[in-house]
Amino acid sequence: MSEVVLYRKYRPEKFKDVRGQEHVVSVLEAAIKGGNIGHAYLFSGSRGTGKTTVARILAREIGCDEKDLYEMDAASNRGIDDIRELRDAVATLPFSSEYKVYIIDEVHMLTKEAFNALLKTLEEPPKHAVFVLATTEIEKLPETIVSRCEAHTFRKPSQEMLRDMIIDVAKSEGFTLDEPSADLVAILSEGSYRDAHGILQKVLTVSKGKKISAEDIEKVTGAPKGTLVNDFLSSLSNKDKKTVISKVDEVVKNNLDVKTFVTLVLHKLRAALLMRHAPEQKESFKEQFSKEDLKFLEELSKEEGITLDVLEKILRVYDEVPRSYIPQLPLEVALMELL
């Protein structure tokens, strides 16, 4: 396998290679084709969705070479002096391109004074300057900044998009993953292309063979085994309080991540309830689960103990776990309420 980090090796170089952001790419391509280049763009969305990647492609597509491309991390350069320095540099002409492009990542981290200084530049930018502001928290940006930018929202990739990308990358590296294994990586990456590449990198690095199984991924990532999740759900459907609590204890004793465990529980709960209320969805689940899991979920969907109330409470747990001093406590409380 290549020693180059997968996320960098497979980072899109052209608009046509960008996955899942067609609504952004199509607008940018049309603007470039029509010669309507904006002076400031705002790319917002969760981490690992391609904001910086698309910003770099935009810079290349408008003819900006490396000498005239500037990237700034606002998390590390957030003060007014940093923006004043940038503002002074913006006034100078490009070295060899028609445009100078400034990509400011994590722009929401700028101080109030820095935002005020940036605003003056955005209000009266030189013709050769193009700004691309990227943020994961657009709500923290002053409205005066947002209103002076062409805003684009980057969507989280669907599980199917991530799964297909994971399979493609693994194949390019000389490995094979079946769809349920790729789905597990997709779930664990939580909607981030970068995290999906990172997880896959770890799995491929330690793999002893060329065929990757779900067990290999569980071992490398520390994800709970599928059997543990299934046993938990069976005990929950049977209202077996003692056993279901013991399964949570098993997660903790094995030093498994509680949020990951809850994520996998939700994934299967959702599938079981959809099989009950929308049987036509079963076909799509054949790509997401192994034959054994699919059979288990079919049986689970018939159990009276699996209800929308259960799903809602576990969904609440997912939000509460990261904020809890004792990670498993929200799950234990929900189980005591349910049982």
Structural domain count? 3
Output the strand order for the largest sheet: 2-3-4-1-5
The count of β-strands is: 7
The assigned CATH architecture of the largest domain is 3-Layer(aba) Sandwich
Head-to-tail CA distance between termini = 49 Å
Structural class: alpha/beta
Low-confidence stretches: none
Q: Can you write the helix and strand succession as a string?
A: HHEHEHEHEHEHEHHEHHHHHHHH
Rough outline: elongated
* Fraction of residues in H or I helices: 40-55%
| Beta-strand residue percentage | 5-15%
Key phrases:
two-stranded parallel sheet, five-stranded parallel sheet, 3 domains, 17 helices, alpha/beta, 339 residues, Helicase, Ruva Protein, domain 3, elongated, 54% helix, Rossmann fold, Zinc Finger, Delta Prime, domain 3
Please describe what this structure looks like.
With about 350 residues, the chain is of the alpha/beta class. It has 3 domains: about 20-155, Rossmann fold; about 160-220, Helicase, Ruva Protein, domain 3; about 225-339, Up-down Bundle (Zinc Finger, Delta Prime, domain 3). It is about 55% helix and about 10% strand. The strands form 2 sheets. The chain has a 5-stranded parallel sheet, with helices on one face. It has a two-stranded parallel ribbon with strand order 6-7. Helix 5 (about 110-125) links the parallel strand 3 (about 100-105) and strand 4. The longest helix has 20 residues, at about 260-275. The radius of gyration is 24 Å and the shape is elongated.
